[in-house]
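Input (structure):
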Protein backbone atom coordinates (compact mmCIF):
# COMPACT_ATOMS: atom_id res chain seq x y z
CA UNK A 1 0.00 0.00 0.00
CA UNK A 2 2.78 2.43 0.93
CA UNK A 3 4.65 1.55 -2.26
CA UNK A 4 1.63 2.28 -4.44
CA UNK A 5 1.03 5.52 -2.52
CA UNK A 6 4.63 6.60 -3.09
CA UNK A 7 4.37 5.89 -6.82
CA UNK A 8 1.04 7.72 -7.04
CA UNK A 9 2.51 10.75 -5.26
CA UNK A 10 5.53 10.71 -7.60
CA UNK A 11 3.32 10.65 -10.70
CA UNK A 12 0.88 13.27 -9.43
CA UNK A 13 3.36 15.49 -7.56
CA UNK A 14 2.88 18.52 -9.82
CA UNK A 15 -0.88 18.48 -9.34
CA UNK A 16 -0.51 17.95 -5.60
CA UNK A 17 1.82 20.93 -5.16
CA UNK A 18 -0.44 23.19 -7.26
CA UNK A 19 -3.52 22.21 -5.28
CA UNK A 20 -1.57 22.53 -2.01
CA UNK A 21 -0.70 26.17 -2.64
CA UNK A 22 -4.20 26.99 -3.83
CA UNK A 23 -5.56 25.56 -0.56
CA UNK A 24 -2.96 27.54 1.42
CA UNK A 25 -3.99 30.74 -0.36
CA UNK A 26 -7.66 30.01 0.41
CA UNK A 27 -6.85 29.55 4.12
CA UNK A 28 -4.92 32.83 4.06
CA UNK A 29 -7.93 34.47 2.41
CA UNK A 30 -10.29 33.09 5.07
CA UNK A 31 -8.04 34.42 7.85
CA UNK A 32 -7.84 37.85 6.19
CA UNK A 33 -11.59 38.06 5.66
CA UNK A 34 -12.26 37.11 9.28
CA UNK A 35 -10.33 40.25 10.22
CA UNK A 36 -11.46 42.61 7.46
CA UNK A 37 -15.16 41.77 7.77
CA UNK A 38 -14.97 42.06 11.57
CA UNK A 39 -16.12 38.47 12.06
CA UNK A 40 -13.46 38.03 14.74
CA UNK A 41 -11.62 40.39 17.08
CA UNK A 42 -8.13 39.19 16.15
CA UNK A 43 -7.55 42.43 14.26
CA UNK A 44 -7.01 44.47 17.43
CA UNK A 45 -3.93 42.38 18.22
CA UNK A 46 -2.30 43.05 14.85
CA UNK A 47 0.23 45.90 14.37
CA UNK A 48 -1.02 49.12 12.76
CA UNK A 49 1.35 48.93 9.77
CA UNK A 50 -0.60 45.93 8.46
CA UNK A 51 -3.74 48.02 7.98
CA UNK A 52 -4.51 50.13 4.93
CA UNK A 53 -7.68 51.71 3.64
CA UNK A 54 -9.96 49.42 1.68
CA UNK A 55 -9.68 51.71 -1.33
CA UNK A 56 -5.89 51.45 -1.35
CA UNK A 57 -6.11 47.67 -0.83
CA UNK A 58 -8.34 47.34 -3.91
CA UNK A 59 -5.90 49.45 -5.93
CA UNK A 60 -3.09 47.10 -4.85
CA UNK A 61 -4.88 43.77 -5.30
CA UNK A 62 -6.21 44.39 -8.83
CA UNK A 63 -2.82 44.96 -10.56
CA UNK A 64 -1.21 42.25 -8.41
CA UNK A 65 -3.71 39.70 -9.71
CA UNK A 66 -2.86 40.61 -13.30
CA UNK A 67 0.88 40.62 -12.61
CA UNK A 68 0.80 37.19 -10.96
CA UNK A 69 -1.19 35.75 -13.86
CA UNK A 70 1.32 37.21 -16.32
CA UNK A 71 4.28 35.77 -14.40
CA UNK A 72 2.49 32.40 -14.23
CA UNK A 73 2.25 32.36 -18.04
CA UNK A 74 5.90 33.41 -18.38
CA UNK A 75 6.99 30.73 -15.89
CA UNK A 76 5.09 28.04 -17.75
CA UNK A 77 6.74 29.15 -21.02
CA UNK A 78 10.14 28.92 -19.31
CA UNK A 79 9.41 25.39 -18.11
CA UNK A 80 8.42 24.34 -21.64
CA UNK A 81 11.59 25.90 -23.07
CA UNK A 82 13.78 24.01 -20.60
CA UNK A 83 11.94 20.76 -21.35
CA UNK A 84 12.61 21.24 -25.08
CA UNK A 85 16.26 21.98 -24.31
CA UNK A 86 16.58 18.82 -22.21
CA UNK A 87 14.90 16.69 -24.86
CA UNK A 88 16.95 18.02 -27.78
CA UNK A 89 20.36 18.38 -26.09
CA UNK A 90 20.41 15.52 -23.57
CA UNK A 91 17.63 12.94 -23.59
CA UNK A 92 13.86 12.85 -23.22
CA UNK A 93 14.36 10.75 -20.07
CA UNK A 94 16.25 13.60 -18.38
CA UNK A 95 13.18 15.85 -18.50
CA UNK A 96 11.95 14.29 -15.25
CA UNK A 97 15.12 15.50 -13.52
CA UNK A 98 13.94 19.06 -14.14
CA UNK A 99 10.20 18.57 -13.78
CA UNK A 100 10.49 16.62 -10.51
CA UNK A 101 12.57 19.30 -8.79
CA UNK A 102 10.55 20.86 -5.97
CA UNK A 103 11.31 24.37 -7.20
CA UNK A 104 9.77 23.51 -10.59
CA UNK A 105 6.73 21.74 -9.17
CA UNK A 106 5.99 24.47 -6.62
CA UNK A 107 6.52 27.62 -8.66
CA UNK A 108 3.29 27.43 -10.68
CA UNK A 109 1.29 26.57 -7.56
CA UNK A 110 2.63 29.62 -5.71
CA UNK A 111 1.65 32.04 -8.49
CA UNK A 112 -1.72 30.40 -9.12
CA UNK A 113 -2.41 30.53 -5.38
CA UNK A 114 -1.51 34.25 -5.32
CA UNK A 115 -3.84 34.94 -8.24
CA UNK A 116 -6.68 33.08 -6.51
CA UNK A 117 -6.10 35.06 -3.29
CA UNK A 118 -6.08 38.46 -5.00
CA UNK A 119 -9.15 37.84 -7.17
CA UNK A 120 -11.21 36.35 -4.33
CA UNK A 121 -10.16 39.11 -1.92
CA UNK A 122 -11.34 41.75 -4.41
CA UNK A 123 -14.73 40.05 -4.75
CA UNK A 124 -15.23 39.63 -1.00
CA UNK A 125 -14.28 43.28 -0.33
CA UNK A 126 -17.00 44.61 -2.59
CA UNK A 127 -19.22 45.73 0.30
CA UNK A 128 -16.35 47.12 2.40
CA UNK A 129 -16.24 50.91 2.48
CA UNK A 130 -13.18 52.57 0.90
CA UNK A 131 -12.40 54.29 4.20
CA UNK A 132 -12.44 51.10 6.30
CA UNK A 133 -9.11 49.69 7.37
CA UNK A 134 -8.23 46.21 6.15
CA UNK A 135 -5.19 43.92 5.99
CA UNK A 136 -5.96 42.34 2.61
CA UNK A 137 -3.68 44.77 0.78
CA UNK A 138 -0.72 44.19 3.12
CA UNK A 139 -1.11 40.40 2.91
CA UNK A 140 -1.35 40.64 -0.88
CA UNK A 141 1.90 42.60 -1.04
CA UNK A 142 3.61 40.16 1.37
CA UNK A 143 2.45 37.21 -0.76
CA UNK A 144 3.75 38.94 -3.89
CA UNK A 145 7.17 39.49 -2.29
CA UNK A 146 7.37 35.83 -1.30
CA UNK A 147 6.35 34.86 -4.84
CA UNK A 148 9.08 37.01 -6.39
CA UNK A 149 11.68 35.55 -4.01
CA UNK A 150 10.61 32.05 -5.01
CA UNK A 151 10.62 33.05 -8.68
CA UNK A 152 14.22 34.21 -8.25
CA UNK A 153 15.09 30.82 -6.73
CA UNK A 154 13.35 29.10 -9.65
CA UNK A 155 15.31 31.14 -12.21
CA UNK A 156 18.56 30.32 -10.42
CA UNK A 157 17.68 26.61 -10.46
CA UNK A 158 16.90 26.82 -14.18
CA UNK A 159 20.32 28.38 -14.84
CA UNK A 160 22.02 25.67 -12.78
CA UNK A 161 19.96 22.87 -14.36
CA UNK A 162 20.85 23.96 -17.88
CA UNK A 163 24.55 23.32 -17.24
CA UNK A 164 25.46 19.82 -18.38
CA UNK A 165 27.89 18.97 -15.51
CA UNK A 166 25.21 19.84 -12.96
CA UNK A 167 22.64 17.64 -14.72
CA UNK A 168 25.08 14.73 -14.92
CA UNK A 169 26.00 15.26 -11.27
CA UNK A 170 22.36 15.20 -10.19
CA UNK A 171 21.64 11.99 -12.13
CA UNK A 172 24.83 10.47 -10.69
CA UNK A 173 23.80 11.32 -7.11
CA UNK A 174 20.29 9.89 -7.54
CA UNK A 175 21.58 6.69 -9.16
CA UNK A 176 24.29 6.26 -6.54
CA UNK A 177 21.66 6.27 -3.78
CA UNK A 178 19.60 3.65 -5.64
CA UNK A 179 22.68 1.45 -6.19
CA UNK A 180 23.70 1.66 -2.53
CA UNK A 181 20.19 0.61 -1.44
CA UNK A 182 20.32 -2.19 -4.00
CA UNK A 183 23.66 -3.51 -2.72
CA UNK A 184 22.57 -3.20 0.91
CA UNK A 185 19.48 -5.33 0.19
CA UNK A 186 21.44 -8.12 -1.49
CA UNK A 187 21.77 -11.22 0.63
CA UNK A 188 23.58 -14.16 -0.84
CA UNK A 189 21.47 -17.26 -1.30
CA UNK A 190 22.40 -20.74 -2.55
CA UNK A 191 21.77 -21.77 -6.12
CA UNK A 192 18.16 -22.84 -6.63
CA UNK A 193 17.63 -26.59 -6.34
CA UNK A 194 14.43 -28.33 -7.27
CA UNK A 195 13.08 -31.84 -7.11
CA UNK A 196 11.20 -33.49 -9.97
CA UNK A 197 8.34 -34.01 -7.57
CA UNK A 198 7.92 -30.29 -6.85
CA UNK A 199 4.65 -28.83 -8.03
CA UNK A 200 5.54 -25.65 -9.93
CA UNK A 201 3.05 -22.88 -10.68
CA UNK A 202 4.07 -20.14 -13.14
CA UNK A 203 2.85 -16.57 -12.62
CA UNK A 204 2.24 -14.37 -15.67
CA UNK A 205 1.88 -10.64 -16.17
CA UNK A 206 -1.64 -9.24 -16.54
CA UNK A 207 -0.63 -6.05 -18.35
CA UNK A 208 2.00 -4.47 -20.58
CA UNK A 209 4.66 -2.18 -19.16
CA UNK A 210 7.85 -1.96 -17.13
CA UNK A 211 8.20 -3.92 -13.91
CA UNK A 212 8.73 -1.04 -11.47
CA UNK A 213 8.79 -2.70 -8.06
CA UNK A 214 7.58 -5.72 -6.08
CA UNK A 215 5.62 -5.64 -2.84
CA UNK A 216 7.49 -8.39 -0.99
CA UNK A 217 5.48 -8.02 2.23
CA UNK A 218 2.20 -8.66 0.46
CA UNK A 219 3.75 -11.46 -1.58
CA UNK A 220 4.92 -13.16 1.63
CA UNK A 221 1.47 -12.79 3.16
CA UNK A 222 -0.17 -14.45 0.14
CA UNK A 223 2.30 -17.31 -0.35
CA UNK A 224 3.66 -18.24 3.07
CA UNK A 225 0.92 -20.77 3.83
CA UNK A 226 0.73 -22.33 0.35
CA UNK A 227 4.31 -22.30 -0.99
CA UNK A 228 7.85 -23.10 0.10
CA UNK A 229 9.66 -21.07 -2.54
CA UNK A 230 8.97 -18.18 -4.90
CA UNK A 231 11.51 -17.26 -7.58
CA UNK A 232 11.21 -13.95 -9.43
CA UNK A 233 12.02 -14.70 -13.07
CA UNK A 234 12.13 -11.10 -14.34
CA UNK A 235 14.03 -8.06 -13.13
CA UNK A 236 13.15 -4.53 -12.13
CA UNK A 237 13.08 -2.44 -15.29
CA UNK A 238 12.20 -5.31 -17.65
CA UNK A 239 9.43 -4.65 -20.15
CA UNK A 240 6.66 -7.24 -19.89
CA UNK A 241 3.71 -8.10 -22.05
CA UNK A 242 0.47 -9.68 -20.93
CA UNK A 243 1.83 -13.21 -21.16
CA UNK A 244 5.36 -12.69 -19.82
CA UNK A 245 6.33 -15.00 -16.98
CA UNK A 246 7.00 -12.97 -13.86
CA UNK A 247 7.74 -15.70 -11.33
CA UNK A 248 7.27 -19.33 -10.45
CA UNK A 249 6.41 -20.83 -7.09
CA UNK A 250 6.91 -24.23 -5.49
CA UNK A 251 3.66 -25.25 -3.78
CA UNK A 252 3.31 -27.16 -0.56
CA UNK A 253 1.64 -30.55 -0.74
CA UNK A 254 -2.14 -30.24 -0.87
CA UNK A 255 -2.07 -26.42 -1.04
CA UNK A 256 -5.11 -24.57 -2.39
CA UNK A 257 -4.33 -22.25 -5.31
CA UNK A 258 -7.70 -20.64 -6.02
CA UNK A 259 -7.29 -17.05 -7.32
CA UNK A 260 -3.55 -17.32 -6.70
CA UNK A 261 -2.67 -16.00 -10.18
CA UNK A 262 -4.86 -12.92 -9.74
CA UNK A 263 -3.71 -12.11 -6.21
CA UNK A 264 0.00 -12.48 -6.95
CA UNK A 265 -0.20 -10.44 -10.17
CA UNK A 266 -1.29 -7.41 -8.14
CA UNK A 267 1.93 -7.62 -6.11
CA UNK A 268 4.05 -6.86 -9.18
CA UNK A 269 3.65 -3.16 -9.97
CA UNK A 270 3.85 -2.61 -13.73
CA UNK A 271 3.84 0.93 -15.15
CA UNK A 272 4.23 2.57 -18.55
CA UNK A 273 7.31 4.49 -17.36
CA UNK A 274 10.36 3.47 -15.36
CA UNK A 275 10.93 4.86 -11.86
CA UNK A 276 14.47 6.00 -11.07
CA UNK A 277 14.19 5.38 -7.32
CA UNK A 278 13.69 1.62 -7.81
CA UNK A 279 15.70 0.96 -10.98
CA UNK A 280 19.38 1.93 -10.98
CA UNK A 281 19.63 1.05 -14.67
CA UNK A 282 17.24 3.88 -15.46
CA UNK A 283 19.80 6.36 -14.13
CA UNK A 284 22.60 4.63 -16.02
CA UNK A 285 20.52 4.84 -19.20
CA UNK A 286 20.16 8.60 -18.78
CA UNK A 287 23.92 9.03 -18.48
CA UNK A 288 24.48 6.77 -21.49
CA UNK A 289 22.03 8.78 -23.60
CA UNK A 290 23.73 12.04 -22.61
CA UNK A 291 27.07 10.54 -23.68
CA UNK A 292 25.59 9.29 -26.96
CA UNK A 293 24.06 12.68 -27.73
CA UNK A 294 27.39 14.36 -26.97
CA UNK A 295 29.35 12.18 -29.41
CA UNK A 296 26.78 12.57 -32.20
CA UNK A 297 28.26 14.36 -35.27
CA UNK A 298 25.72 17.19 -34.93
CA UNK A 299 26.83 17.99 -31.36
CA UNK A 300 30.43 16.70 -31.41
CA UNK A 301 31.18 17.26 -27.72
CA UNK A 302 33.40 14.30 -26.70
CA UNK A 303 34.46 15.94 -23.42
CA UNK A 304 30.90 15.81 -22.13
CA UNK A 305 30.73 12.16 -23.16
CA UNK A 306 33.99 11.48 -21.30
CA UNK A 307 32.64 13.16 -18.17
CA UNK A 308 29.47 11.05 -18.34
CA UNK A 309 31.54 7.87 -18.86
CA UNK A 310 33.59 8.63 -15.75
CA UNK A 311 30.45 9.04 -13.68
CA UNK A 312 29.05 5.79 -15.09
CA UNK A 313 32.30 4.00 -14.24
CA UNK A 314 32.16 5.15 -10.63
CA UNK A 315 28.58 3.87 -10.33
CA UNK A 316 29.50 0.51 -11.83
CA UNK A 317 32.47 0.26 -9.46
CA UNK A 318 29.98 0.05 -6.57
CA UNK A 319 28.15 -2.82 -8.29
CA UNK A 320 31.48 -4.56 -8.96
CA UNK A 321 31.93 -5.06 -5.21
CA UNK A 322 28.99 -7.48 -5.09
CA UNK A 323 28.85 -11.01 -6.55
CA UNK A 324 25.43 -11.98 -5.25
CA UNK A 325 23.18 -13.26 -8.00
CA UNK A 326 20.47 -15.15 -6.13
CA UNK A 327 19.25 -12.69 -3.51
CA UNK A 328 16.99 -13.79 -0.70
CA UNK A 329 14.39 -11.03 -0.34
CA UNK A 330 12.25 -12.89 2.22
CA UNK A 331 13.30 -15.77 4.43
CA UNK A 332 10.97 -17.12 7.08
CA UNK A 333 10.88 -20.65 8.48
CA UNK A 334 10.47 -22.93 5.45
CA UNK A 335 9.46 -20.19 3.02
CA UNK A 336 11.73 -18.07 0.82
CA UNK A 337 11.48 -15.49 -1.97
CA UNK A 338 14.45 -15.32 -4.32
CA UNK A 339 15.23 -12.52 -6.75
CA UNK A 340 17.85 -13.03 -9.47
CA UNK A 341 19.99 -9.88 -9.74
CA UNK A 342 21.84 -8.52 -12.75
CA UNK A 343 25.46 -9.67 -12.67
CA UNK A 344 28.35 -7.35 -13.51
CA UNK A 345 28.78 -8.77 -17.02
CA UNK A 346 25.18 -7.87 -17.86
CA UNK A 347 25.56 -4.40 -16.34
CA UNK A 348 28.78 -3.71 -18.26
CA UNK A 349 27.29 -4.74 -21.58
CA UNK A 350 23.99 -2.96 -20.92
CA UNK A 351 25.80 0.27 -20.07
CA UNK A 352 28.68 0.44 -22.53
CA UNK A 353 27.71 -1.46 -25.69
CA UNK A 354 25.99 1.50 -27.38
CA UNK A 355 28.80 3.90 -26.49
CA UNK A 356 31.36 1.43 -27.90
CA UNK A 357 29.37 1.02 -31.10
CA UNK A 358 28.98 4.73 -31.83
CA UNK A 359 32.34 6.02 -30.56
CA UNK A 360 34.87 3.38 -31.61
CA UNK A 361 36.37 5.89 -34.07
CA UNK A 362 37.00 8.49 -31.33
CA UNK A 363 40.23 7.56 -29.58
CA UNK A 364 39.67 9.92 -26.63
CA UNK A 365 36.26 8.37 -25.84
CA UNK A 366 37.61 4.83 -26.21
CA UNK A 367 40.49 5.65 -23.86
CA UNK A 368 37.96 7.05 -21.37
CA UNK A 369 36.05 3.76 -21.59
CA UNK A 370 39.19 1.74 -20.87
CA UNK A 371 40.10 4.07 -17.99
CA UNK A 372 36.58 3.62 -16.64
CA UNK A 373 36.91 -0.15 -16.82
CA UNK A 374 40.26 0.10 -15.05
CA UNK A 375 38.55 2.04 -12.26
CA UNK A 376 35.85 -0.64 -12.05
CA UNK A 377 38.46 -3.41 -11.97
CA UNK A 378 40.24 -1.80 -9.04
CA UNK A 379 37.02 -2.01 -7.00
CA UNK A 380 35.98 -5.47 -8.21
CA UNK A 381 35.97 -8.77 -6.43
CA UNK A 382 38.24 -11.47 -7.87
CA UNK A 383 35.40 -13.04 -9.87
CA UNK A 384 34.16 -9.73 -11.24
CA UNK A 385 37.69 -8.65 -12.13
CA UNK A 386 37.81 -11.42 -14.74
CA UNK A 387 34.61 -10.09 -16.33
CA UNK A 388 36.04 -6.57 -16.46
CA UNK A 389 39.33 -7.77 -18.01
CA UNK A 390 37.48 -9.73 -20.67
CA UNK A 391 35.27 -6.77 -21.53
CA UNK A 392 38.27 -4.42 -21.66
CA UNK A 393 39.97 -6.79 -24.11
CA UNK A 394 36.84 -6.89 -26.24
CA UNK A 395 36.61 -3.09 -26.37
CA UNK A 396 40.31 -2.72 -27.13
CA UNK A 397 40.32 -5.23 -29.98
CA UNK A 398 37.09 -3.83 -31.40
CA UNK A 399 38.42 -0.26 -31.53
CA UNK A 400 41.91 -1.01 -32.92
CA UNK A 401 40.85 -1.46 -36.59
CA UNK A 402 39.38 2.06 -36.50
CA UNK A 403 42.74 3.65 -35.58
CA UNK A 404 45.58 3.46 -38.09
CA UNK A 405 47.58 6.29 -36.55
CA UNK A 406 50.46 4.97 -34.42
CA UNK A 407 49.97 7.64 -31.77
CA UNK A 408 46.29 6.75 -31.45
CA UNK A 409 47.13 3.08 -31.01
CA UNK A 410 49.82 3.92 -28.46
CA UNK A 411 47.30 6.15 -26.65
CA UNK A 412 44.98 3.15 -26.21
CA UNK A 413 47.75 0.67 -25.46
CA UNK A 414 48.97 2.87 -22.63
CA UNK A 415 45.76 2.12 -20.73
CA UNK A 416 45.17 -1.44 -21.90
CA UNK A 417 48.68 -2.45 -20.84
CA UNK A 418 47.62 -1.82 -17.22
CA UNK A 419 44.99 -4.57 -17.48
CA UNK A 420 47.65 -7.01 -18.66
CA UNK A 421 49.99 -5.89 -15.88
CA UNK A 422 47.27 -6.41 -13.26
CA UNK A 423 46.83 -10.02 -14.42
CA UNK A 424 50.51 -10.66 -13.93
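Output (sequence):
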Amino acid sequence: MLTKLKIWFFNQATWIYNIEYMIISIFILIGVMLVDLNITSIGKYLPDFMFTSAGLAKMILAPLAGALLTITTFTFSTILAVMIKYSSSYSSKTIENFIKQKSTMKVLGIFIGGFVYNICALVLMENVGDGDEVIAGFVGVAYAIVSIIYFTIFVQNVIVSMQTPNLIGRIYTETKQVIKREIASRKNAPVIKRSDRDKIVNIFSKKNGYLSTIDYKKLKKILKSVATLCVIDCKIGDYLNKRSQIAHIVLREGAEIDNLQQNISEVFIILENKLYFYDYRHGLTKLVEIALRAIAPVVNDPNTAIYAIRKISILLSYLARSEHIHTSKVEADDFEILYIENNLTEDLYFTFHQIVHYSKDDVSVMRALLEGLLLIEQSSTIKNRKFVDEYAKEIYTKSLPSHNNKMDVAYLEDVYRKFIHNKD
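Notes: The mean pLDDT is 87. The CA atoms of residues 175 and 375 lie 18 Å apart.
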